[in-house]
Amino acid sequence: MDQFKHIPGTLLQKAKLIKLLVSDLDGVLTDGGIILDDNGMEYKKFQVKDGQIIAYLKLSGIQTGILSGRNVKVSQIRCEQMKVDFHYHGVRDKWATLKEIIEKKAISTSEVAYIGDDLIDLELLGKVGLSAAPADAMGYIRDKVDYVTLTKGGKGAFRELADIILFAQGGLKISI
After folding, report:
1. Other CB atoms within 10 A of residue 32 CB
2. Is residue 73 helix, strand or coil?
3. What span, in angstroms and rounded, lies between the C-alpha atoms of 24 and 123?
4. Which tens digits make up the pLDDT trace of 122-160?
5. What are the start-end ranges of the E strands in 30-111?
6. Is the pLDDT score of 17 beyond 70?
7. Neighbours of 150 (CB within 10 A)
8. What is the pTM of this model?
9. DSSP helix/strand/coil, 145
10. Are 9 and 39 in contact (CB under 8 A)?
């Protein structure tokens, strides 16, 4: 498929191993913006394409999760709607949290992909099998990951990474 011709073979090899795809929330599943009303109610905009691919990941045996540094009700609601396998909010040490999860699931770090965009994600990005960042992530984050998406956070960056993983594993079935 032409849309994957820019993906290096080494990245596809890493993607073939993935059993768990984990994402940051703000800046990946959203554009990082926050809208507050006069009562302090918080609003966020999510890309439906990011949520749509989760069902296909599950059909291919790939689990999904969200680790968010912020604890906001609207984010929790969206995670429930997307039916991710797990979601944790208000997480300060994302690596420690993910380490516990992968130990319980009895998988290795090489079988985990993570996409994040800021300092809170940096340690974790350096320890997983496949690391990614949205196109608009901080430069020092983009410099440290295996793959920088062509799309920005909140515009389908998670979907782009998921599609690459599914493509590498032969699970992206496209027919007309």
Report:
1. 19
2. helix
3. 13
4. 999 999 999 999 999 999 999 999 999 999 999 999 999
5. 35-36, 42-43, 63-68, 86-89
6. yes
7. 13
8. 0.94
9. coil
10. no
**CA 72 – CA 145 distance, rounded (Å):** 27
Q: Alpha-carbon distance 165 to 134, whole Å?
A: 15
Judging by DSSP bridges, how do beta strands 112-115 and 130-133 pair with one another? parallel
Pairing of strands 42-43, 35-36: antiparallel
**Tokens read off for 119:** 């300092």
Please tell me the predicted confidence (pLDDT) of residue 2: 74
The dihedral region occupied by 45, where left means phi > 0, alpha psi between -120 and 50, and beta the remainder, is beta
State both tokens at 12: 């596809």
What is residue 29's three-state secondary structure? coil
| Contact by Cβ (8 Å): 98, 121 | no
CA distance 171 to 82: 19
Rounded-to-integer distance, Cα 145 and Cα 63, Å: 21
Q: How far apart are CA 116 and CA 124, in angstroms?
A: 9
Whether residue 35 contacts residue 43, with contact meaning beta carbons closer than 8 Å, is answered with yes
For 57, the 3-state DSSP assignment is helix
The angle formed by the CA atoms of residues 93, 94 and 97, to the nearest 5 degrees, is 90
